Amino acid sequence: MQVTRKDITPTKVEMTITASQDVLDATKDHVLSELAKDIDMSGFRKGHAPKALIEKSVDPATLQSRFLDRAVNALYMEAAVREKLRPVSQSQIEVTKFVPFTELEFRAEVEVVGAITLPDYKKIKVAKQVEPTTDKDINAVLDDLRRRDAKKTDVKRAAKDGDEVVIDFSGVDAKTKAAIAGATGTSYPLTLGTNTFIPGFEPELIGLKTGDKKTFPITFPKNYGATELQSKQVSFTVEVKAVREVKLPKLDGEFAGKVGPFKTVAELKADIKKQLEVEKDNQAQRVFENELLTSIAEKAEANIPDVLIDEEADRMEAEEKRNLVYRGQTWKEHLELEGITEEQHKANMREQAESRVKAGLVLGEIAEAENITVSDAELDEHIAQLKKKYQDKQMQAELDKPENHRELASRLLTEKTIARLTHFAQKA
């Protein structure tokens, strides 16, 4: 086989492939053997007639069609491997010369992942920042545990800090008066002074009694979790259904024993501190890994085909739309809240998608450079652990599917690669 390669663009390749005679002969023999299985020929067992006789018995057009399909597919795959191509789309094939069973030449044009130039990733350092666990953190958990075990009594007086108020509330855009998706609630219990709701909301309820109604504006923080509500002014109308006095249990050994196998408050605090430290370390590790991969990807150079970016952007948008349905918000409402057009949203999404795709490709390139692989034994062990964790029959069935095995193997490869990068980044 001869292969002439032409790089049309950094992500599009054209190959002209010429078959050798030995490949053509082997392909013809294979196709005739396959056709023989369906032919009854007098004097021979089915499938065992001489190939010369089989060739005379089959339709020439059928033989040539089967021959071309097999030869082109096999030669294209071999050429792609030889040229180290990473196709991301179906190739466009054009047969340029075909003399039945003696000459075959064709062109194949395909979108591929272009060259990826890695930075010196072993020298890229990122510091892992673990937030210390303070007495304030521990006391916040203790307060939450006490509130869960608190006694609540309906009262007729005005609400004050520490009380629980049960409210109906609804929010509308302060300017347009349009309803805000997700900004409504019915019989919602809220403990005043806990600062667990929208900043500025709880103080507005102090002094209200059961049956009172109040309308007030709230400006959402710039860093609010829902991006469509960041810095947005919303007018809330609240009706108080009940005011309840909350009596917290005494913080003593008896309370500690209710929470868990603890004899003293000191033991309970020590356990809370330990759990918080684990949570904060895990969070710091996630941030560290993300910053490390982002730093490496930003320094890398990659030629990424548009089809990969478009596919990732479509997946991201589909996921976003699913989340909106869950929250009871339409796509149009979402765009209006963000103050952008659909075209602007797609442009923003595509930029994020390109970063994601690039990071994934860079990780794959590093795995190859470091000879990182996932063995069958590692995958089997991982699946066995997942089956112990998820006992329901549906999940067990999903874990047995080959397509999910490929996904799990890919995740394991990513984890092993990130672990290697972490080692380099933290090495003195």
Q: Which strand-content bin applies to the residues?
A: 15-25%
Give the proportion of residues in helices. 40-55%
CATH architecture identity of the largest domain: Orthogonal Bundle
Class from secondary-structure proportions? alpha+beta
Summarize the helix and strand pattern as letters: EEHHHEEEHEEEEEHHEHHHHHH
Largest sheet properties: 5 strands, antiparallel
Identify the CATH homologous superfamily of the largest domain: Trigger factor, C-terminal domain
Number of discrete helical segments: 12
Radius of gyration: 33 Å
DSSP summary, beta strand count: 11
Distance between the termini: 51 Å
Net shape: elongated
Instruction: Fill in the CATH topology of the largest domain.
Output: Trigger factor, domain 2
Give the C-level CATH assignment of the largest domain: Mainly Alpha
Mean pLDDT metric: 90
The tally of domains stands at 3
- Which segments are poorly predicted (pLDDT under 50) over 5 or more consecutive residues? none
